[in-house]
Amino acid sequence: MDSTRRKFLKIAGLSAVAGIGAPAGLNMLMNKNVQAAGGHGDAAPAAHGGGHGEAPTGKRYGMVIDTVKFHERPGLAEKAIKACHSYHNVPDFGNNKDEIKWLWNERFANAFPDKSHYKKDDDLNSNQFLVLCNHCDNPPCVRACPTKATFKNKDGIVMMDFHRCIGCRFCMAACPYGARSFNWRDPRGEKDGRPFIKETNKLFPTRMRGVVEKCNFCSWRLAQGKEPLCVEACGGTGAMVFGDLNDPHSEVSQVLRTRFTIQRKPTLGTKPSVFYII
Amino acid sequence: MYDAGKIIPGLIVFVGLMLFAIYYNVGNKIEDPKPEKPVGYTSCVLPLEEIRAEHMVLLNEWRDEVIREGKREKVEAGGKMYEKSLQNGCMHCHTSQEKFCDQCHKYASVNPYCWDCHVTPEYGKALGEAN
What we know:
The complex is a heterodimer of chains A (278) and B (131). Chain A is α+β, with helices and mostly antiparallel strands. Chain A has helices at 2-36, 67-72, 76-87, 108-111, 122-126, 140-144, 170-174, 219-223, 229-233, 251-258, and strands at 61-66, 103-107, 128-132, 150-152, 158-160, 181-182, 190-191, 194-195, 212-213, 240-244, 274-277. Chain B has a two-stranded antiparallel ribbon with strand order 1-2. In chain B, a hairpin with a 2-residue loop joins strand 1 and strand 2 (80-82). Chain B: It comes from Candidatus Desulfobia pelagia.
């Protein structure tokens, strides 16, 4: 009796170890295979600058913003902002605390805090810089979202599914660029007789109270073969160049190859898809 | 029975309250919902019976296909192409929320939250075909 119990316990113990260990071992093997096949992004030590150097797979939409051209043409940035905000029914709550921002102006020190140095030239200090969602290749907001309301689509665009947003604002805490805004109030409401959405565009939905929103790179326009509204608003000035970063022949790739550009907070490893000519 | 003097009147009041709704509505004729059909359009994206029963499922599928999978190709109905969209697809023809959607929703006592965000078009004015 004793010896059979002893045997039974031995076998039970061994099978428990095998049962727990085998899946982990298998997983490791599988991961090795995936890495050998060339994972997208994860295994890239040259991730520092982002975008350059990796083997491109599929589309990755991105943008170059030529701030010099914007500063040469006062009012152009505002025109681009208006084109975006009026179409997308972005509400104006009338105070900075509740401000909803898809595309907005920022001072250099705030847009590029890691580029701070003693004795900057006057233009950098006085000019405004157009910023928007960076549609990162490694988006922290997507990892933070508990409902997958925000996710990266096959074209590299960080999308929002407003239906699924529960308003937890984890993504806002995760985004290092402040590109996400929360609707503290009902965007369809009004204050002192002034509606928050001046003129509702009937072709685009509004949002409801308690939902986070941000730039979607006009993904619905891309599907129709058009450029984003802000890029279109800049007309032929070339102040905003949009295209596929993974296509070496796209206009945006040509600009990136020939001009020196910077990204916002590249050291964080988010690999932003929006580049700036300063 | 203890406290019969309280329990029995209590029961009578309870049953009376429960039956009040039936008594109150007896003989009332509830009008069938009459959703207004769009003028000049004869066919929907699905056969009538299916769209009537399954439109909410279709809308959810469209949403996931369009937003998540990027499948934005249009759907065909009666020779016309429509966007996979509530606001720019369905309401292209069914332009009035009150006269179409709400008719049955009210009758069935369901309160979908579509219009918390989606904007209803101007009544009787079809949206541009391009969008």
